[in-house]
Design a protein that fits this description.
25 helices, 5-stranded parallel β-sheet, 3 domains, Rossmann fold, alpha/beta
Length: 639
């Protein structure tokens, strides 16, 4: 049954929100939270993070003059309430759907989205850029970056804090502290924030002092400046260490209850009058207002469909014939290998559940490392381990590995260290869209000297490639695999070494040679099943490795075929197909080559099947490409 939202339905922009009195913000927050619960329960998305910032979002748009004032969200998992309040409530049911709203802030979607995001730890840098631009142009406005404590573990956030603190830019950093990103927050920063938030005596005295000085400030304009100095001494006396943020020249306020919308709104209003870099420490609960999401914050980060009344997750029933997820094959295989090779260690930047490293972590916690949202550190940390004879499996989503490209080259490949990069979510990932598609790893990895670049066609090959990589005789090794389910239920085969540079022929044929890499081979196999009644025959090769290529196989192909089709679920620019064309040119072969893959554009969000069609990678598009390569008039029936 559809619910009504009496106040929320009157709000089509932040201007409408400002017509309410401050006490009505409590009711708006309640309706907004329920609206998110109702919508995300049937149209899945990022749930817990958005519930946790409902009051903060309402307060920001109430206190700020958006879109003139700028709010930069970090990652974007927490931006649903923001989208709903900024004119997108009626379209919110299209969130993350093909040609619908993006699941993340996006500048060309709304003037209220001050900066596009999808990866973490970028908000402070972007907000500082906006604030400094305002200074250069003589514009006076408020700029806020909303960043979670999990995102604050990313090195880029510290770089931005360091730079912003040395400026006099008018920027407010709002630290949304809920002690979790997707999995629980880790590291010394987490302990530091706990130290601040649990010192109740200090916080009580600080708040009382600040309110007192606010009253005196009306008579003595510099009272709060003196209060700030007094407070610094208070911190040193009552906390184990000085305030990190103030050491970076930020004026620190908080911590405050981020779910007290009236207090947050009033404090944000007051802070607008204080110039320079400021940090507001806000305590929130991820999943606030939905019992199951509060109690199981990792699972309800993006839970899929669920019953909005009971919280029960609505799972697709799996039986014995359902293949496992690729990520689970990785996790179980790594544990299996680690039991026999005591040099194996696992590393992930804040995704132990998402990449299934948690399977090994539960049994071997001393050999698994969640380093926080810090991809660059994860890579060089892995290199350090490898330099001492360890065999690190560094698991990073393909799109996130882009953030650590320099470290892959400088710290791993240049020193020929046997780090195994397992790139999850290679290819088109679906509803998360262009910030998360793993489009570029084949191209960027194959350009690195000494790097072995592998892509399994199924989960059995994934197992064998992981086994091959841990032998440590091939140097740095990259294995990419897709999001979603594999192809087989009987995937636990005995390990076999798949020597790099050795392809396999899957089907004989005489008219067109089809060369595939990774998961794209399954799309071709499906297309060829439909072409069994065709008069022409097609040879299909699973190349397995983009680097090194199987040159013996390719010499055979170009000697016997004058028509070659390459298929990959990665970018066409510099990818697998480009490698085949380079081989042909370097060896003075001539052939008609057609390349299928992700075109030179950013692919939007949708289901994987919808996006395969957009890119011409679905079986029907593959058949159409083959039809275009054959001679006119040749019988080409599709069964």
């Amino acid at each position: 049954m559809k619910r009504s939202y009496p106040l929320l339905e009157t709000i089509n922009s932040p201007h409408d929100l400002k017509q309410l009195n401050v006490e009505e913000l409590v009711k708006v927050s309640s309706e907004l939270r329920q609206f998110i619960i109702d919508e995300v329960s049937t149209n899945p998305g990022h749930f817990g993070a958005s519930l946790g910032v409902v009051e903060l979002t309402v307060a920001l748009h109430y206190a700020y003059n958006t879109p003139f004032d700028k709010i930069v969200w970090d990652v974007g998992h927490q931006a649903y309430a923001h989208k709903i309040l900024t004119g997108r409530r009626e379209r919110f049911h299209t969130n993350r759907r093909f040609k619908g709203l993006s699941g993340f802030p996006k500048m060309d979607e709304s003037e209220y989205d001050a900066f596009g995001v999808g990866h973490s730890s970028t908000s402070i840098s972007a907000a500082l850029g906006i604030a400094v631009s305002d200074q250069q142009r003589g514009i006076s406005r408020n700029v806020a970056a909303v960043i979670g404590d999990g995102s604050l573990t990313g090195g880029m956030a510290f770089e931005a804090l360091n730079n912003a603190g040395a400026s006099n830019a008018n920027i407010l950093v709002i630290l949304n502290d809920n002690n979790i990103s997707i999995d629980a927050s880790v590291g010394a920063l987490k302990e530091y924030l706990v130290d601040i938030t649990t010192s109740r005596t200090y916080n009580k005295l600080k708040n009382e002092l600040w309110h007192l000085m606010g009253k005196i400030n009306k008579i003595a304009p510099h009272a709060r400046d003196y209060a700030q100095k007094l407070e610094n001494g208070l911190k040193s006396a009552m906390l184990r260490q000085s305030n990190l943020f103030e050491a970076l020249n930020f004026r620190y306020f908080g911590p405050i209850d981020g779910h007290d919308v009236v207090h947050v709104a009033r404090l944000l209003h007051d802070l607008k009058g204080i110039p320079g870099p400021k940090l507001l420490h806000v305590l929130t609960t991820k999943g606030k207002g939905f019992k199951q999401a509060e109690e199981n914050q990792t699972e309800y980060h993006a839970p899929g469909k669920f019953n909005r009344e009971t919280g029960e997750l609505i799972r697709v029933k799996k039986d014995a014939d359902t293949p496992p997820l690729y990520q689970d094959v990785f996790g179980q295989t790594l544990l299996e290998l680690a039991r026999t090779n005591d040099k194996i260690v696992g590393i992930t930047p804040a995704m132990p559940t998402g990449c299934s490293l948690k399977i090994m972590m539960d049994e071997m916690p001393e050999r698994t490392f969640d380093v926080g949202i810090a991809e660059q550190h994860a890579v060089t940390f892995s290199a350090g381990l490898a330099s001492q004879g360890m065999v690190p499996f560094c698991n990073i989503y393909s799109s996130f590995m882009q953030r650590a490209y320099d470290q892959v080259i400088h710290d791993v490949a240049l020193q020929n260290l046997p780090v195994v990069f397992c790139l999850d979510r290679g290819g088109l990932v679906g509803a998360d869209g262009p910030t998360h598609h793993g489009a570029y790893d084949l191209a960027y990895m194959r350009s690195i000297p000494g790097m072995t670049v592998a892509a399994p066609m199924d989960e059995i090959e994934l197992r064998h490639m992981m086994y091959t990589a841990q032998l440590s005789k091939y140097g740095p090794f990259s294995i990419r695999y897709p999001r979603g389910q594999g192809m087989h239920t009987d995937w636990k085969k005995p390990f076999v070494e798949l020597v790099p540079g050795k392809a396999r022929k899957l089907q004989d044929g005489t008219d067109v040679a089809i060369l595939t890499i990774g998961h794209a081979g399954n799309l071709v196999r499906e297309a060829l099943q439909k072409l069994k009644s065709a008069k022409m025959t097609f040879a299909h090769y699973d190349m397995r490795y983009v680097k090194p290529l199987d040159e013996t196989c390719l010499h055979e192909v170009f000697r016997h075929f004058d028509k070659v089709l390459t298929v990959e679920d990665g970018t066409l620019m510099g990818g697998f197909g480009s490698a085949i064309v380079e081989f042909m040119c370097d060896n003075a072969y001539t052939a008609q080559i057609k390349r299928l893959g992700i075109p030179d554009e950013f692919i939007e969000h949708g289901t994987q099947q919808e996006l395969y069609k957009v890119c011409g990678l679905d079986p029907d598009s593959i058949i159409a490409a083959l039809r275009g390569m054959v001679k006119p008039g040749v019988l080409f029936n599709v069964g």
